[in-house]
Design goal:
The structure holds 2 protein chains of 2 kinds. Chain A is mainly alpha-helical. Chain A contains 22 helices and 2 strands. In chain A, α7 packs parallel to α14. By secondary structure, chain B is mainly α. Chain B has 2 domains: about 60 residues, no CATH class; about 80 residues, no CATH class. Chain B is about 75% helix and about 0% strand. Chain B contains 5 helices and no strands. The mean pLDDT of chain B is about 90. Classes of the chains: A mainly alpha, B mainly alpha. The interface between A and B is large, with 63 and 66 residues.
């Protein structure tokens, strides 16, 4: 009954508003679901946890879905996860089937989203129950595994590992907290910095800087040039969408959604990996893939169902282990922290109502996304034309609100936003990987606590290998992820030779 | 024999220095990784740095200096002046409102390629309405702390 009291018009209104804003963000090339969540985060300060989460989940689902609009109409993915939608969506749009392509994508997206919400509902509590038994040793190894998996799937493993460790290092700046068993001393800073950095860098200004301001700087550097060189393709006229296009696509839908959900569960692996993997699997296993890349509906189905399936998948490690599945869920951690809730193995058990409300919000966000996009796609398509000289100044303004309000009015948090906005730009230039860096930053302090407590308790490093069968199993997983990364690297090196 | 080997892995942490124990390990790992990156990529490093210098100096590549450095300068000025002005109007959000109007207008002006009279009016209206709306909704309705 307590849950029902939260299911107010306000709750659903916020999901709808979040979904719509998310779609708009996703539909503008260069702006992502992560940016949508980061920019709108200050709005949640005024709401309670449940309503705040409803808004953020709407933004998340809408942001991922909106990416298909420019992918189909101007051949530029609105979000990285829509990259493979361009392969078939744009050729369809060019031959006058733009609306049909978008509607195929919308239906595939809602299937993927609902599929992953179901997996989240059934799988996260099981994983959380299992994780409750973890001691400090296993908790540290889980973080190590997460960082290894993230780094091993980066385009350059060495840079990925470096970025993750750099994230951990940055998180350690500040005081070794007494509440965590530390001695209350500061580290990794000069004396004059203590006034500002006694508690280290706040998470949300760091995230908002890297995902908000960095994007603006990267576009400013290019001078806001029209990357397409042509306007969007019109949706008027052309072939009509019919649901029978999905005949024979059930296997594709289920396989692609499963891939998307699985990739989402892997920490730090982005939506682009999910859609590329699902697309290539469809190409390899479907009976007829000869038209893929030339405007085949099956390509859009695999791409869009997999990238929307990422949403539920990425919430699994967040809610059961406290490890974000992607950059957007990393910001959700900040939203939870803001409301005084710690995500991890105990989250679902201790916050059962919030857990159910999250599932309802995720389902509702997918259904509302379908309703909004399916019936208003022609209007949404116009969003692509909104000029960035109007949007970007407002985004920086909203970033300021988010950074300043997080600790109830600390100006240094606004400077942190600028510092990390510039840092994100430099990182992009020198090839640092943002996602491992962010996840390293989020998990760094916990890693320290678990590592130090394990040693204080057992006094010997061998405990990390011998503590329990789970610890040994986690080492096996770490070894597999490293071996897989080396295998991928070797295969990628060989491939050009074979092709030539 | 086995316990002798295991004792090699014994570690004790001095509480007074415990705040440096993990950071030192992480710093060393970071240094080693950096060395590995430099060793494996040293051939790309020097030409890369030289090219970056040429791009930033405007001698090579496409880099919009005006918009990039303009964004940095305006953002820095926006934050600094907002901080100064917030001492004049503490806890009201007026500092945010006033500086945001100026900032949004100037940054939009910086980003626009071909300014027409109609566009100028749009930019002025956008700079007046959007920050005022944000200030009203966030500071007045939602009671969110603004500079």
């Amino acid at each position: 009954m307590d849950i029902l009291s939260h299911l107010t018009p306000m709750f659903f209104g916020l999901i709808a508003a979040g979904t719509l804003i998310g779609i708009i963000f996703g539909a503008i090339p260069g702006m992502t679901a992560t940016m949508a969540v980061a920019v709108c985060l200050p709005l949640t300060y005024a709401f309670g946890l449940e309503n705040g989460i409803a808004l953020l989940l709407g933004l998340y689902v809408g942001g991922i879905s909106g990416g298909m609009v420019p992918a189909v109409l101007i051949n530029i993915p609105g979000t990285p996860s829509s990259i493979t939608t361009t392969f078939d969506g744009y050729p369809m749009a060019k031959r006058g089937e733009g609306e049909r392509a978008l509607k195929i994508g919308i239906v595939a997206s809602v299937f993927g989203g609902l599929f992953s919400a179901a997996v989240l509902f059934f799988f996260a509590p099981v994983l959380a129950d299992f994780a409750i038994k973890f001691s400090y040793v296993e908790k540290f190894l889980i973080i190590l595994l997460a960082l290894t998996v993230i780094a091993s799937l980066c385009s350059n493993m060495l840079m990925g590992v470096f970025s993750g460790v750099l994230g951990v290092w940055l998180s350690l700046i500040g005081t070794y907290s007494i509440t965590e068993g530390g001695n209350g001393e500061t580290r990794l800073m000069f004396d004059f910095m203590e006034y500002y950095l006694i508690d280290g860098f706040s998470l949300l200004p760091v995230l908002i800087g890297i995902f908000g301001l960095t994007t603006v700087l990267l576009d400013a550097e290019k001078g806001f040039k029209d990357e397409t060189g042509q306007g969007p393709i019109s949706l008027k006229g052309g072939a009509k969408f019919k649901f029978n296009v999905f005949k024979g696509q059930l296997l594709n839908l289920v396989r692609s959604s499963s891939i998307g959900t699985f990739v989402g569960i892997l920490p730090g692996v982005g939506g682009s990996a999910a859609s590329v993997l699902a697309y290539s699997q469809e190409k390899n296993f479907s009976r007829d893939s000869s038209q893929m890349g030339k405007g085949a509906p099956q390509g859009i189905v695999s791409s869009e169902s997999s990238n929307n399936a990422l949403t539920g998948g990425a919430l699994v490690p967040l809610l059961s282990l406290g490890i974000p599945g992607d950059s957007t869920t990393a910001i959700l951690i900040g939203a939870f922290t803001l409301q005084g809730i710690q995500v991890g193995p105990l989250f679902i058990g201790n916050n059962i109502n919030t857990w159910y409300l999250m599932i309802i919000a995720l389902l509702a966000a997918n259904v509302l996304m379908f309703g909004i996009m399916y019936f208003a796609i022609r209007h949404i398509a116009k969003v692509i034309e909104v000029p960035k000289y109007i949007l970007y100044p407002l985004i920086i303004m909203m970033c300021v609100v988010g950074a300043y309000a997080i600790n109830y009015g600390i100006m240094f948090d606004v400077w942190t936003l600028l510092i990390f906005g510039i840092f994100g730009w430099v990182a992009h230039k020198i090839g640092l990987e943002t996602v491992p860096l962010i996840i390293g930053f989020i998990l760094g302090k916990s890693a320290e606590v678990y590592f130090v407590k394990s040693i204080e308790s057992y006094g010997n490093l061998s405990i990390f290998f011998t503590k329990s069968p789970i610890a040994m199993f986690l080492w096996v997983l770490i070894a597999i992820s490293l071996a897989f990364a080396i295998y991928l690297r070797l295969r990628n090196r060989r491939q050009p030779t074979v092709e030539s | 024999m086995e316990s002798q080997w295991l004792s090699l892995l014994d570690v004790s942490i001095d509480f007074d220095q415990s705040h440096l124990f993990f950071p030192r390990i992480v710093t060393w790992i970071l240094v080693i990784l950096l060395a590995m990156i430099v060793i494996t990529r040293y051939r790309l490093l020097v030409p890369g740095l030289k090219r970056a210098g040429r791009v930033l100096a405007g001698r090579e590549g496409e880099f919009d200096h005006k918009r990039f450095f303009g964004t940095l300068a305006l953002t820095t000025a926006y934050f600094y002046l907002m901080s100064v002005l917030s001492d004049v109007f503490p806890n009201t959000g007026y500092s945010f409102l006033i500086m945001s109007v100026v900032f949004v207008f100037l940054l939009s002006l910086l980003y626009v390629e071909h300014l027409t009279r109609r566009l100028f009016v749009i930019l002025v209206l956008n700079a007046l309405i959007a920050p005022a709306l944000a200030w009203y909704v966030l500071a007045q309705l939602f009671r969110i702390t603004l500079p």
